[in-house]
Amino acid sequence: MILPIYIYGHPVLRKIAKDIDPETYLNLQELIDNMYETMYNADGVGLAAPQIGLDDRIFVVDLKPLADDEHPEFKNFKKVFINADITEKTGETELVEEGCLSIPGIHEKVPREDRIRIKYLDENLQPHDEEYTGYMARVIQHEYDHLDGVMFVDRISPMRKRMIKSKLANMEKGKVSCSYRVRTV
User: Fold this and answer.
1) Within the chain, how many helices (H) and strands (E) appear?
2) Which of 177, 160, 146 is nearest to 14 (CA)?
3) Please, are residues 66 and 109 in contact by the beta-carbon 8 Å criterion?
4) What is the residue range of 22's domain?
5) Does an H or E element contain 132, and which?
6) Distance (Å, rounded) from C-alpha 63 to C-alpha 135?
7) C-alpha dihedral, 7 to 11 to 15 to 20, nearest 10°
8) Pairwise CA distance, residues 2 & 136, whole Å
9) Which of the residues 30, 88, 108, 143 is marked catalytic?
């Protein structure tokens, strides 16, 4: 089922998500399926539970739409991250443009480390402790931030944030237009 995506300004996007007990979480697979369907419908590559109104520590990523000759590894990068914990961020800090389904129409350069280590459970409740680099690390950090109530615009320079202030204010007032279902304040 395609769910509405919550837009910048909605309080759920600023809450710190809670770990879930996957053993007792009702309809976990249905939630995962709905998250993927919602993300695909909005042409996204990642979606976190707060973006669909839940304060649960789960997000999904699928980089297949970005796979090409330069990045064939993206073709098979489809993952569910449950109760994720980034335990390490290292490497060079890179400034790369990001966007977000919860902040439609705004793209800004965001500084992020290019290497992370993350512990999480997958959709089969199997534990993982993995390292990611480059764009994969960036997408994971972006979605992980949602679990901590952080949005990419919180990480941009103060000058750039001032330049988009009126657009963000309009979103907070519910003035937003995009091609997918949304929920505003």
Assistant:
1) 4, 7
2) 146
3) no
4) 5-183
5) strand 127-133
6) 10
7) -70
8) 25
9) 143
pTM of the model: 0.96
Distance CA 109, CA 98 (A): 6
**Distance of CA 140 to CAs 115, 120, 125, Å?**
10, 12, 18
Residue 18 to residues 15, 29, 65, 99: CA-CA distances in angstroms?
Answer: 9, 18, 30, 24
Determine the 3-state secondary structure of 70 from DSSP.
coil
Q: What is the CATH number of the domain that holds 96?
A: 3.90.45.10
Strand order in the sheet with 78-100: 46-48, 58-62, 78-100, 103-121, 127-133
> Is 143 annotated in the active site?
yes
pLDDT in tens, 12-69: 999 999 999 977 888 999 999 999 999 999 999 999 999 999 999 999 999 999 999 8
Closest CA to 47 of 31, 28, 71, 25: 31
End-to-end CA distance of the chain: 22
- Domains in the chain, number: 1
Question: Coil, strand or helix: which one is 160?
Answer: helix
Quote the tokens at residue 67.
């796979």
Q: Which residue has the tokens 């998500």?
A: 17
Amino acid at 97: E
Residues in the chain: 185
